[in-house]
Amino acid sequence: xxxxxxxxxxxxxxxxxxxxxxxxxxxxxxxxxxxxxxxxxxxxxxxxxxxxxxxxxxxxxxxxxxxxxxxxxxxxxxxxxxxxxxxxxxxxxxxxxxxxxxxxxxxxxxxxxxxxxxxxxxxxxxxxxxxxxxxxxxxxxxxxxx
Length: 146
Fold this sequence. Notes:
By secondary structure, this protein is α+β, with helices and mostly antiparallel strands. It is about 45% helix and about 15% strand.
């Protein structure tokens, strides 16, 4: 895990240098936190963590830095209905998402058959680099409530 964090720090440093942006401690603290999170996160949870741990960052700073991390492909944005979430993008396995339309819970899953089907699909003038599949329905917990 530390090797991955070092690598993403190098990638981000290079990106900042190429775009003549400042290398601030806040930017690297945000990157460190993101690469310590397992699964998805949103701006509010990231903001709460940073504030609780005495980092002086505003929501605007988080949004601006998330946009930089999206641009340099270290973070991926996921849109589940009205809820934007993010996840690490470097050195991650391709996975799909089950989304409960009642409670909003998101569960990741991988399926070798889906992966094979997509990889075997030949599309003229198009090379697949990655994909994401969202499957909407009702989770068992919400189904029991009904």
